[in-house]
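Session log. Operator J.P. requested a structure for one protein chain; no other inputs attached. Running the standard single-chain path with token output.
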Amino acid sequence: MIEIQRTDFLVDEAPNIKPFGHTYTINPKYGKGLYWTFDVSDNCVIHIHKIKFKEESLYQSDELIDKYTFAFYISGSGNEFFPYQNLTPHTLRTYKPKERYKVIYHPQIELICFSIGLSPFFIEKYVKLHHKKLALHLDSFLNIKNHFFIPKLNKILYEMYYYKDSSSPDVFFTAKIYEILSEISSYINKNKKTIVAHQQINKEDLLALQQISQYIDEHYNFDISLDMLAKIACMSVSKMKILFKRFYDMTTVEYMQRKRMSVAEHLLISTPLTIAEISNIVGYTNPSRFTEIFKRYYGCLPSTYRSTQN
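Structure written below.
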């Protein structure tokens, strides 16, 4: 595995892929690809990453840029942390300013990501002028660390990704960003109960939930009891189950299954290990049980998935 360094990730400016903005090539030691960026305004920037990594690549940062980031993953394979989850194509992921970040990218599938960075000033101005009620739950929405699949948003993001008209791109992108924020406002209004539930978890409990998820990330191939997780969180089992489900929108069992399946996916496409061996590595003594759960998440048998990817 190689760790990506910000200081040498980009090397040379390349022929531009659009008639505006700037395109740069990726350092060949990390893989093959490009990075495109365009400053829509002082408070808004958009990026495209298209990278085929050479090997497992780790990127981590104590804090991201000082903007709200909306990342639309078009393709790619990998695992994000804080909390642990798979990179999921055709989904939107949100990041708050200066948020801690860690991700491992897998080399088998090209990463294509279109992202938008908005300053706190841009968000505050939009909220004040257009959706004052949005301010009540926007922060909680951004704290939900899921990959969102919102079809109307996807359509807008694809329009932005493919846009190449050289006439007034700043006007086009600004209008589309307002559309995105409007759709997020609608989504928040429709899902207030879930978002408010996140708001009701205090900081101490949030920290405890993160400790639970980190423990599962590091011990996913062991049998982990609810009693053990409750002790780590210093909670009763019932409280721990309720808060974990509320915050992660899944049970601890599903969280561990997702982690196991992600590791299994990587082993299937990057090693010659047998299905039984992979099953044992990720924590299943019964290969049939492993196969059943893998099919539930990926829609096919592990052997079929391996042959398709190869």
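Operator note: DSSP finds twelve helices and twelve strands in the chain.
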